[in-house]
Amino acid sequence: MTNPAKPALRPDNPCFSSGPCAKRPGWTPDVLRNAVLGRSHRAKVGKDRLNAVIEHSRQILGLPDDYLIGIVPASDTGAVEMALWSLLGQRGIDMLAWESFGTGWVSDVRNQLKLDNVTEHFADYGKLPDLSLVNFNHDVVFTWNGTTSGVRVPDGTWIDGERRGLTICDATSAAFAMALPWDKLDVVTYSWQKVLGGEAQHGMLVLSPRAVERLETYTPQWPLPKIFRLTKAGKLMAGVFKGETINTPSMLAVEDALDGLKWASSVGGLAGLIGRVDANALAITNWVDSNPNFGFLAELPETRSTTSVCLKILAPWLTALSDKDQDIAVQKLTALLDVEGVAFDITSYRDAPAGLRIWAGATIETKDLVTLFPWIEWALEIVRQETREIAGEKQNA
Fold this sequence. Notes:
Distance between the termini: 20 Å
Number of strands: 14
CATH architecture of the largest domain: 3-Layer(aba) Sandwich
Helix content: 25-40%
CATH class of the largest domain: Alpha Beta
Number of helices: 9
CATH superfamily of the largest domain: Type I PLP-dependent aspartate aminotransferase-like (Major domain)
Number of domains: 2
Shape: globular
Order of helices and strands: HEHEHEEEEEEEHEEHHEEHHEH
Largest sheet: 7 strands, mixed
């Protein structure tokens, strides 16, 4: 059996991982030359660089003037945990989960904080929970974009503008790529390593005035680790939101974040970033619509992620395999792409159904996606032929 010919063109950048994500186009280590190294981050020069990240982020995201934004440790995960441990427990909680990370937040609230008045809204991969059932008299915890399922909330119309509880939103693969309704979000978290292609380990925490009020009027019943503390003597630690980080940050990563923000401004700010993301999503949609071997994991078009795009492989020969053999076939496919140097790290998340996960955020060039598609088709055919040969050998044994 003759193998299909390899496509003639290759993506200029094969980094399609959903985190850490591709660096911005044209990035080189030279952008770090002005990093504040060998100096205390608490010195004026260090705090100025940290505060520059905060203020530049505020400007691009279009945050309301009375919202606070701070740099916190441990990436988006640290920012979410800080919010959960510091804010929850005053009233009931509605937890939404339709993928791995949302399910993890539910587990933490149930099993670590051990809160009882919790309503869980679950949905399988590819779907959203029934958003009409959410009780906004409670605090509500949800991800805006399910990075491991490729499913996002379509907009903010389902969020009650007159809510009594807080809305706590993990927006790590949505910030800078999707329009967020800030007036309906009280806590928003994200990391530098997603849409802006920054380095890991630093999270961003955005607080509305309602969230600040909760912090200053409510004390959780459990002890708070130092790394989670946002108040002192009943008052917000305001310095956290002016570049006075709780722990020692990497000033190399800070400089890299500043470079990403400058690049974001150069492509038109938030509107430009969203435009790049939407162009990438359209390219993937056009390819999937023209190829019956692939489909979106998200069942409804309005809930499809435009950044972490999760695809099912619908080829009949593959869907006829057992779940285990489907996983093996997909791993072979993505390994071929890796060896060829055309796509790195696009296997679906370990807890998700077998398939592909392609990052299409703003740092990805649309032409690289278009060049990738024939390679995916080529690899699928190679794996199909190998699978048929193995099946034939088993039958003849």
